[in-house]
Amino acid sequence: MAPPDVESRVAPPLVNCAQCGGMLPQGLGEIECVLCGAMCRVTHQPTIIALMGEKVQCPHCMTVVEAGTDKRPVDLSCESCSGIFTLTRKIVKVEVQCPSCEANLRIRPRPGKRELTCPGCQKPFFVTF
Ligand SMILES: [Zn+2]
Ligand SMILES: [Zn+2]
Ligand SMILES: [Zn+2]
User: Fold this and answer.
1) 70 and 15 in one domain?
2) Global pTM value
3) How remote is the CA of residue 53 from the centroid of ligand 2, in Å?
4) Rounded to whole angstroms, how far apart are CA atoms 23 and 14?
5) CB atoms near residue 66 (< 10 Å)
């Protein structure tokens, strides 16, 4: 049986590629730009500290467990009930505005250009990160 997931509340900042300016996949360490293939080193000390010290509730017994690591996803085991659960990455969402009706959409940013369809006015438009 797969351990239950708990979503982290801490996310690395969205960073742009030093070479082409496109958005890098979210993460820390050596990150490869999916647009131009450049390797970029992403470090963000406040995020690392926040990830290490993040406290989450054990989904089995509700005891507060400290992550103690900046890895996500990571399997944690609860000291009080020995239950195991997975602390997953936080899903970052950004707001984009439909150019036709100005409705705000909350989407998961992905590097590059993609087409979205506005749920309000059904008109397609492109976003680039
Ligand atoms: Zn790049
Ligand atoms: Zn527990
Ligand atoms: Zn619209």
Assistant:
1) yes
2) 0.77
3) 18
4) 7
5) 12
Reduce the DSSP state of residue 47 to 3 states and report it.
Answer: helix
Distance 23 CA to ligand 1 centre (A): 8
Amino acid at 41: R
CA distance 27 to 20: 18
CA 119 – ligand 3 centroid, Å: 7
CA–centroid distance, 34 to ligand 1, in Å, is 7
What's the 90 CA to ligand 3 centre distance in angstroms?
A: 27
pLDDT tens, residue by residue, 29-49: 999 999 999 999 999 999 999
76, pLDDT greater than 90: yes
Distance 110 CA to ligand 3 centre (A): 20
Instruction: Tell me, yes or no, whether 29 and 69 share the same domain.
Output: yes
Q: Which ligand is nearest to the CA of 99?
A: 3
Do 99 and 68 share a structural domain?
A: no
Let me know whether 83 and 100 are in one domain.
no
